[in-house]
Amino acid sequence: MNFIKRGFLGITRKKGKSLILLAVIFILGNLISGAISIQQATGNVESTVKERLGTAATIDIDYDEWDAMSDSEMESLEMEEISVDLIKEIGELSYVKYYDYNMTFWLGSESIERYQDEDLDDEMEEDMMFGPSMDFTLKGINYAPVIDFEEQKGKLVDGRVFTQEEVDGGSSVAVISKKLAEENNLNVGDTFTLANDVYTYDYNTGEGDLVTSRDVVLEVIGLFEPQEAKKETEENSESDMMVLMEDTEYYNTMYVPNEVVIDETKYNWEESLKADEELAEMMEEEEESFEYYSPIYYLNNQEDIEAFTEEVKPLLPELYTVISASDQYDNIAGPIESMSKLAKYVLIVAVIATVLITGLVVLLFLRDRKRELGIYLSLGEKRSRVVGQILIEVMVVAVVGITLSLFSGNLLAQQVSDTLMRADDNNEEYFEEYYYEGISTDLTADDVMDSYEVTLNSSYVLGFYGVGLVTILISTIIPLIYIVRLNPKKILM
Amino acid sequence: MILEAKDLNYYYQDGEQRRYILKDTSISFEKGKFYTILGQSGSGKTTLLSLLSALDSPHSGEVLFNGDDIKKIGYEKYRRNNVGIIFQSYNLVPTFTAVENVLVPMSITENEIPEDTKTVAYNLLDYIGIVKNKADRLVNRLSGGEQQRVAIARALATNVELILADEPTGNLDEEMEQEIIEIFKKLAHEHGKCVIVVTHSNEIALQSDQAFRLRKGVLTSYE
Question: Which stretches make up the ABC transporter domain (chain B) (predicted)?
Fold first, then answer.
């Protein structure tokens, strides 16, 4: 008749009390289980979505802060540019896997044709005609292996990427899309010519005149294909067209050493200023430069973003901030976040309620059994074993109650979260967003909600058993301490 | 000398006043004898018994078991291995059967107990006058006298030499009282136990080998 056997006998010989305790634990267990289920599911969504958003980050003006500035603050503000040295300093931080900073310029050509998607109708295509000298996007590269290829935006299918010497020396080499090469019968090793046309514009008529032009001869060293599959959306829908246009732009993008872009931009800038005195004066007054970089950093891990941001912010000039891919999570995951918060509060309240209610129930039961505990103590039983006996009685019932509520609470959580999300979806808010290449995503609140799933996985089961049993343990030990601290004479005589 | 109390003091603090229940009380007991401590309600006899059985501790003084201070032995360990206690209100576990109640101290003690504890418990109950079919009943289905017999069997279950009883016949009729007294005599005289009974009954005191009277915390010999 040791304390373990006594514990089990205590459950079977007092069936009524055991059932009451089971009912209390089951009901409260459902609250805890439901809250943990929702928390786990929202936690999973956060990690899945942030994983999909990627590890990219950039430095840009904090537009929220900018918008909040008063007119007088704006006037006194002296904006600093992000220097190449600062970009490199940030790039050397341990969180950064690789980074690039580049300029982009647009050129046309007399000798090669722009690639046009056959699915785009003429009207759309016309909208995309930016003028004769802007058919092709020249994207500068400082990171020789090309970040877009490393990040699977594109894939090199023929030839090679740049060497560091080509990047540093600004060699006239290019990696172009395979479709563009096929359109113009170009192969690796061939050369093609682009035209850097300089125009002046009449601001009254909006018409432009060609002032001068120079040829840009580039050798094809590699061919790439875009990696992102076209989204299968409704035919001719607006988003479908947007995707097609983006794809078409990418087919007409050429990767070249950044020095080539700088040279061409500088030529165009200087020639434009020579031809337009009014513009030259304005630019001189405002100390404008043609050189402007938007850096992109890819971090080692999603978890590094917070630490990276903290470390980078003090290095930045006033009004600049770190923009990361995961920033968008807050915008698109509104319903999930509000449910996560609700689940957190429910969990806290449920745990406190469980400690109080179970504690009171156990205390009431113990009051009836105070004499019995006194008897064990008078017989010389160790206090720890008396506590152990009662813990066995309560914990065995608790395990049964918690196991039952594990399933019912999970089911309850599915129903509640479905209802909440539907209600929240109707009140969906739209956020103004800025576009950042490599960072902005087409993930929507619907994608986020699709990835929300209340499941019965091992972390939920362990989490619930952990929280549930510890809660019951605390609510049992507190009243028990009150009883066993008494000496047996006080209980029995 | 199996048990000896030396200069025991026990009091309640009443403001700045101390209300003494026991004052410099000393007493000693031998094996093989049946002792009674006689006293009216509030005389301090139950307090003395609770100090001798280590259910409570004195403010000063010491209780020696076979020459060792029970404080040094450890109150819990002393109760577990050296003393059997019988209460006026039996103090049996109501949800257990008679035999289960006897088995409880057998699982707690560190004394050597035969392996087949259940048979020992049944035999013990039978010796005290509880037959097997009654031994398997829940104790609250037994009469007061039967319950007190179960309590005596429980006190004997750990094979201790010292039995302390607080008004063991207080809830019983005269006939049953005499049966219980006979059991105590037998335990002392035939089995060499030291049996100490606290009572207010002169009848019981007269049947004991030695009796003490406790009045206002002061112990005297009872003739």
Answer: 3-223
The alpha carbon of residue B56 is apart from the nearest alpha carbon of chain A, in Å, by: 6
Q: Most A CBs within 10 Å: which of B81, B86, B93, B102, as the mutation test of the A interface?
A: B93
Last residue of a domain, one of A311, A326, A341: A326
- On the 0-12 / 13-18 / 19+ scale of CB atoms within 10 A, A48 is middle
Residue A16 and residue A72 in one domain: no
Give the global pTM: 0.61
Domain with A102, as residue range(s), is: 55-326
Spatial separation of the C-alpha atoms in residues A407 and A30, rounded to whole Å: 9
Instruction: Say whether both A38 and A73 belong to one domain.
Output: no
Residues A352 and A426 grouped into a single domain: yes
Q: Which residue is closest to A384 within chain B, CA to CA?
A: B76
Residue A238 and residue A295 in one domain: yes
Mean pLDDT, residues A388-407: 89
Sort out which chain A residues have CB atoms less than 8 A from B46's CB and list them: 493
Among A326, A352, A374, which residue terminates a domain? A326
Indicate if the pLDDT at residue A124 is higher than 60.
no
At A2 the pLDDT is 85
| Chain A residue with Cα closest to B83 | A379
The number of folded domains in chain A is: 2
Q: What's the average model confidence in pLDDT over A288-307?
A: 81
Report the distance separating Cα A186 and Cα A181, nearest Å.
Answer: 5
SS3 B205: helix
CB contact under 8 Å between A379 and B91, yes or no, is no
Q: Could you tell me the pLDDT band of residue A240, with boundaries at 50, 70 and 90? A: low
Integer Cα distance of A31 and A353 in angstroms = 10
Pair A208, A156 in one domain:
yes
Contact (Cβ atoms closer than 8 angstroms) between residue A233 and residue A239: yes
Clarify whether residues A188 and A294 are in a common domain. Answer: yes
Arithmetic mean of pLDDT, A463-474: 84
